[in-house]
Amino acid sequence: MKRTAKRGEGNGCKGGDEDGTGIENLQPLVGEISWSKHIVILTKCKETQQRQFYILATKKYGWTKDVLINKIEAKSYENYLLGQSNFDLTLPETIKNQAMLALKDEYTFDLVGLSEEHSEYELEQALVKNIRAFLMEFGPDFSFVGNQYRIEVDGREYFIDLLLYNRRLQAMIAIELKIGEFQPEYKGKMEFYLNVLNDTVRLPHENPAIGIVICKSKSRMIVEYALKSSTMPIGVATYSLSPELPEAYKELLPTSEEIANKIALLLE
Question: Apex CA 257: angle with CA 12 and CA 84, to 5°?
Answer without folding.
Answer: 110
